[in-house]
Structures are given as C-alpha cells and as structure tokens.
Amino acid sequence: MCGFNIKNVLFCFPYVLFSGEEVWTKTGMTDMHHLNKKVKKHEASKICIKHVLSLALLGNVNIAAQ
Questions:
Q1: What is d(CA 3, CA 12) in angstroms, rounded to the nearest whole number?
Q2: How many angstroms separate the Cα of 21 from the Cα of each of 11, 29, 61, 63, 65?
Q3: Which residue, of 9, 34, 45, 46, is most buried by count of CB atoms within 10 Å of its CB?
Q4: What was the pLDDT predicted at 63?
C-alpha cells in the first residue's frame, strides 16, 4: 500500500504499476472505517498476488535466458 496524504487515500503500489481496479489505482481507497476488511480481501485476490509476484521479479529475470 502507498498513500497520498493530501487527499487521505491509499493505493496498491503493484496495481498502480501493472493495472487493476480503479479504486486501488486511480481514485484511491477512501473508506478508512472498513479499510482492514477491504485490504485483506484485496490482498487475497489472485490478481493482487500475481502483481505482487511480478513486482518482486521485476529486474530479477534475465529475459535473454528465458
């Protein structure tokens, strides 16, 4: 997660890099009252897990070797 304190919103950094739901990429999560529940659901999604793995591998995979 990354935040923008001027608007008081949170974004999912891997989603910002690799695209995803608008609430995690463009508008930002503003529902701080239900944040814990929404983040847990978001982090358990297949696409979020895929993007986190892609971010972890960014710069570590030798394309020529593939």
A1: 9
A2: 10, 11, 26, 28, 33
A3: 9
A4: 67
- Return the H-helix or E-strand segment holding 11: strand 9-11
CA–CA separation, 45 and 63 (whole Å)? 27
Beta carbons of 42 and 12 less than 8 angstroms apart: yes
The continuous run of DSSP H or E covering 2 comes out as strand 2-4
Q: How far is CA 28 from the centre of its chain?
A: 10
What is the pLDDT at residue 66?
64
The pLDDT value recorded for residue 6 is 83
| pLDDT tens per residue, range 3-49 | 888 888 999 988 888 887 888 888 888 888 998 999 899 889 998 99
Cβ neighbours of 11 (radius 10 Å): 19
The neighbouring-strand residues paired with 29 are: 10
